[in-house]
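Re: beginner question about structure tokens

> Can someone show what the tokenized structure looks like for a real chain? I only ever see the sequence side.

Sure, here's an example I had lying around. Input first:
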Amino acid sequence: MAQALPLMPKATAVWLVENTGLTFPQIAEFCGLHPLEVQGIADGEVATGIQGQDPIATNQLTKQEIELCQQDATRRLRMNKQDLPQPAKRTKGPRYTPVAKRQDKPDAVAWLLRHHPELKDSQISRLIGTTKTTIQAVRDRSHWNSPNIRPRDPVLLGLCSQTDLNQTVAKAQKASGKPPTPPAEAESAAAEPEQAIQPAPSHDLSIFKLPS
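And the corresponding structure tokens:
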């Protein structure tokens, strides 16, 4: 069974980073975040402006539990048992993308705009978990990192699966009235070698030789 998360995971993570000596993986696992995101909080690049919430004051953690985990980096933080009902987990919405891969999203957007112009911004947004503002900025080259953006396949970047990409493209092509291109057919066409040029047939001129 998955461990219950604190009521305000990111605010709790901010407090733990600022007030304890816990490792990033310990805080990340307790708060349901990625270790790189916790590192971003420590570096002041993530959760800026979020006020930390003390999990001891809200009876979600005990001071003793924090001290034990500080002494043993392999120990996991254990949520203090509560009788209050926990909010249900959100099952829909954009998938979580590790901070390390978020910088790849503009490259993926550029690739999709180049190779699949039939895709709507909303489809690109859902496919790789980005915003319409980012898509428009990449399209009109007003993105802050435009000089360094280079189109790269979102599947190879790990931002979506090949199945999701194929289904989204097929749906967009159907809506635009364009006949869908089967992936296998496209691959075979690209891999088909050029037809070799056959040499012109030679003619035997010996029959025209005059007798000596």
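Each token stands for a local structural state, so reading them left to right follows the chain. DSSP finds ten helices and no strands in the chain.
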